[in-house]
């Protein structure tokens, strides 16, 4: 997560990023170009055609905005966004520097979550680095390289901590050593660090390490345009979901106008594109919620982490709002629509007055009262 302060407006913008990773030639750049409706990423048929990461900001689809805007007669609609980063392909041995691996692993450290693209499409014209389509094996290669990179990080930290644990410092560092040894054992078993449980104190140490396998991850299975169900591997497990897309189909859809794209989906019997599913899944992966503001000037979606309290949510709109927060008028977006906006919701009994301890929920429509 990056916090960007726009000084001229004192507005704090929360930027969340998803790294698109996988082996070379699995469709990462094709998927990225479709997401961003651009040709920004080179999608050539050879390994490592992407060297420096491509970054694109993508709007999060949200049908609620149009409904709120209609009620408020808003002049404009502003959706929230998520950032996608197209990272070059990893190969076996990346943790030891193979295929420029160290450089690419450093790019993964900078994102908030990982979308691992796994090839399940059968196009023989597209080179596979291992000369065979093996989705499960490919996923295992990527996961192992992330684990091995973390093992190096944890082992080095453990060695240095043990050296420092002498004299009066020994007792203070004992718990940290026990934590590092537990994480090291997990990684040596070729399991991600995210699957362990940590208390608050331990999480402070874990965050310092910037472990790759602590990042939330989902699998994106890239299939043919009309896939056989037998073609779709089962990669997800508790805590790690998967979605199925056809990057080739999504690239074709991205070249159509919005109206043409909707008509195509309707004809195909689809309610949303694979890209919309990916964006929604990525947003969920980051543990984000959306609250909404609506009035005549604009209807807008705002992004905060789950469990964010009202003053901090107000601070996303304007940094001064955190200190000046007094109270918030809050209602569910459906009630806002059903009762015809702010003018009538107050009479319905559905409007709540919330204070500083209120935790903002997804779908809340909010009006903040600020002491200037």
Set out the fold topology.
Elements: E1 2-6, E2 11-15, E3 17-21, H1 28-36, E4 54-59, H2 64-72, E5 77-78, E6 81-86, H3 101-109, E7 113-119, H4 135-164, H5 169-188, H6 200-209, E8 217-222, E9 242-245, H7 247-254, H8 258-267, H9 274-285, E10 288-294, E11 299-305, H10 310-317, H11 320-324, E12 325-332, H12 333-338, H13 342-348, E13 352-354, E14 364-370
Parallel strand pairs: 3-6, 3-7, 5-11, 7-8, 8-9
Antiparallel strand pairs: 1-2, 4-6, 10-11, 12-13, 12-14
Helix pairs in contact: 1-7, 4-5
Question: What is the gist of this entry?
Answer:
The protein is an alpha/beta fold.
Strand coverage percent: 15-25%
Order of helices and strands: EEEHEHEEHEHHHEEHHHEEHHEHHEE
Mean pLDDT: 85
Q: Shape from CA axes?
A: flat
Low-pLDDT sequence parts: 2-12, 41-50
The gyration radius over C-alpha positions equals: 23 Å
Helix/strand structural class: alpha/beta
How much helicity do the residues have? 25-40%
User: How many alpha or pi helices?
Assistant: 13
Largest sheet: 6 strands, mixed
The overall strand count is: 14
Biggest β-sheet: strands ordered side by side in the sheet: 4-6-3-7-8-9
End-to-end Cα distance, whole Å, is 29 Å
């Amino acid at each position: 997560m990056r916090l960007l302060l726009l000084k001229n407006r004192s507005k704090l913008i929360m930027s969340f990023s998803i790294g698109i990773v996988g082996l070379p030639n699995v469709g990462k750049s094709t998927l990225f170009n479709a997401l961003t409706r651009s040709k920004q990423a080179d999608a050539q048929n050879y390994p490592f055609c992407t060297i420096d990461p491509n970054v694109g900001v993508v709007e999060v689809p949200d049908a609620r905005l149009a409904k709120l805007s209609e009620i408020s007669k808003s002049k404009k609609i502003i959706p929230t966004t998520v950032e996608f980063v197209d990272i070059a392909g990893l190969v076996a041995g990346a943790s030891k520097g193979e295929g420029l691996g160290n450089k690419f692993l450093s790019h993964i450290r900078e994102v908030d979550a990982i979308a691992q693209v796994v090839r399940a499409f059968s196009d023989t014209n597209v080179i596979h680095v291992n000369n065979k389509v093996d989705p499960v094996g490919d996923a295992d290669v990527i996961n192992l390289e992330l684990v091995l990179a973390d093992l190096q990080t944890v082992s080095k930290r453990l060695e240095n901590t043990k050296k420092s644990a002498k004299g009066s410092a020994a007792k203070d560092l004992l718990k940290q050593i026990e934590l590092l040894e537990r994480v090291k054992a997990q990684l040596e078993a070729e399991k991600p660090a995210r699957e362990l449980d940590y208390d608050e104190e331990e999480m402070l140490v874990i965050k310092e390490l910037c472990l790759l396998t602590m990042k939330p991850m989902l699998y994106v299975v890239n299939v043919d345009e009309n896939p056989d169900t037998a073609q779709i591997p089962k990669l997800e497990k508790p805590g790690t979901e998967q979605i199925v897309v056809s990057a080739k189909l999504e690239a074709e859809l991205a070249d159509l106008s919005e109206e043409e794209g909707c008509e195509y989906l309707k004809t195909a019997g689809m309610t949303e594109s694979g890209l919309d599913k990916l964006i929604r899944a990525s947003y969920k992966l980051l543990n984000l919620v959306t609250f909404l503001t609506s009035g005549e000037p604009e209807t807008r979606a705002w992004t905060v982490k789950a469990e964010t309290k009202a003053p901090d949510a107000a601070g996303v709109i304007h940094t001064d709002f955190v200190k000046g927060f007094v109270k918030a008028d809050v209602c569910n977006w459906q009630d806002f629509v059903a009762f015809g906006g702010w003018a009538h919701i107050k009479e319905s009994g559905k409007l709540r007055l919330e204070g500083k301890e209120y935790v903002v929920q997804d779908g809340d429509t909010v009006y903040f009262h600020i002491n200037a």
